[in-house]
Structures are given as structure tokens and as C-alpha cells.
Amino acid sequence: MNRRTLPALTALATATALLLTACGGESSGADEKIPGAGRSSAEASASPGEKADAIDRPEMKFPKDFKMTWDVATPSDPDEAAAVNDARNYMEATFHAVTEQDPEDSAYKFYVVPLSQAQQYAKETAEAIVERGWTVTGELRHSNVQVRKGESKKLITVSFCQNEAEAFSKEVKTGKVLKDQGSEKPYYAYTVLMEKSASIDGLWQAKAASATKGAAQCA
Q1: Contacts with 133 (C-beta within 8 Å, 6 or more apart), sequence order
Q2: Is 67 helix (H, G, I), strand (E, B) or coil?
Q3: Which helix (H) or strand (E) holds 196?
Q4: pTM, full prediction
Q5: Among candidates 39, 35, 36, which has minimal Cα distance to 69?
Q6: Residue 144, exposed/middle/buried by CB under 10 A (0-12, 13-18, 19+)?
Q7: Hey, how many other C-beta atoms are within 10 angstroms of the C-beta on 132?
Q8: How far is 6 from 138, CA to CA, in rounded Å?
Q9: Rounded to whole angstroms, what are the CA distances from 103 to 17, 122, 125?
Q10: Dihedral of CA 50/146/192/67: which sign?
Q11: pLDDT in tens for each of the 219 residues of the chain?
Q12: What is the DSSP letter of 46?
């Protein structure tokens, strides 16, 4: 298992390792820029492609002092593109629970397989921050997105880097930004196992998630 602590957020939950044997295969190439690439989550389109546009997704808005940016290219395969987009949505929904101060926020529950490790990961991530009386401020940057199809057509692994050098905890009551709790290696390699939804056409949901602090590929 990996224990992942946010450098300026100072807390996160224990994550179980992914069983990647179910998700072997080569990383896909990338063609077009995904909607919202290089822009903040507030500016980004919620979903690529006509299928995803028909999904009734939860609305997520962050405070003006926090954003999540993504430098992402869209795979040519439509399933891979949808999995990447919803892995991003899962991450954003997790931090939406933090800014909403609600570890039971419905947004991340929409993007997870019910009762999965990914659901618990998101909940414990939010709880670890909210229970300290904190929220988040600044910018979380994401890059180096890779996609691997599994042996099952219903499973796709999405991996990416997260740089938290400009993200910080903020005390909810006082508004004080806790910039003195940083890390020498404020970057992480994430892996999210996505599963095709059996009930909503075009939706992919997180089944498991893990992160490694200070990963060389993210330096």
C-alpha cells in the first residue's frame, strides 16, 4: 500500500495498490487536445464527444482561489478518451468534496464504482483535510497522462502526474494559508483504474486509485 501525504495539504488516506495485471497493454498515442487541456477545471468542458455530452453530470464549481489544471492530449480511441476525461472528473470531484467541506459529496460518488476502493479513497482524502478545519487554495497541475487498456474491454488504467508546488491548505475559519507545510518533492504519480459503467452509456467510473510521492517520472 502507498501512503500519500499532500505537501501543503498535509493529509491524505492510505490507498491500496492496483491490480495492474488486469490492465496490461501498451500506452495509447494522443492526437487532439482534450477540451480544457491546459486550462483550469472551471473553464474546461465537462466531457468530450457526443456520448459524454448526453450524460447528466453533477455540476462542480471551485472557489476563485483554487483551480486544477490539466495538460492532456486526447487518445484517438473513444473509450480511452472517455476514461481519461472521467479520471480527471474523479480527481476534481474528490477536491470538490474538500472545497464543499463535505466528505460525502455526491459529485465524487457519481464518478466511482459504488463501494469501491476509489470511493473510499476519495472520502478519506476529503475527511483528512476537512476534519482539520482546512480547505484548499492555489493550483494543482496535472500532466504526463498515460492510458493502458486492460484485457477486459471494461477496464482502462489512467496514470498521470500531479504537481502540488502551488497548492496549499487554508484554514476555513481564519482564511490563513498554510504555506509552511510544503515538501521538497511536491509531485506525485497517480494511477486510477477506470471501469466502464454498466448503466450509463459513455460514463467511466473509478474503481481503484493509488499515488506515489516523489516519483521520478513526475519530477
Answers
A1: 171, 172, 173
A2: strand
A3: strand 187-196
A4: 0.80
A5: 39
A6: middle
A7: 15
A8: 13
A9: 22, 8, 8
A10: negative
A11: 333 345 334 334 333 333 332 333 444 444 433 333 333 444 444 443 334 468 999 999 999 999 999 999 999 999 999 999 999 999 999 999 999 999 999 999 999 999 999 999 999 999 999 999 999 999 999 999 999 998 899 999 999 999 999 999 999 999 999 987 656 789 999 999 999 999 999 999 999 999 999 999 998
A12: S
Collapsed DSSP state (helix, strand, coil) of residue 204: strand
CB 74 within 8 A of CB 34: yes
Bridge partners, residue 210, by sequence: 191
Q: Tell me the backbone φ, ψ of residue 187, rounded to 5 degrees.
A: -135, 150
Give the list of residues 6+ apart from residue 206 with CB closer than 8 angstroms, or none.
86, 87, 90, 111, 112, 113, 116, 118, 119, 122, 192, 193, 194, 195
Tracing cell 487554495 back to the chain, one arrives at: 137
Instruction: Report the distance separating Cα 118 and Cα 183, nearest Å.
Output: 25
The amino acid present at 86, given as its one-letter code, is D
Provide the pairing of β-strand 2-3 with 14-15. Answer: antiparallel
Cell numbers standing for residue 11: 493529509
- What is the SS3 assignment for 38? coil
User: The cell 471501469 sits on which residue?
Assistant: 195
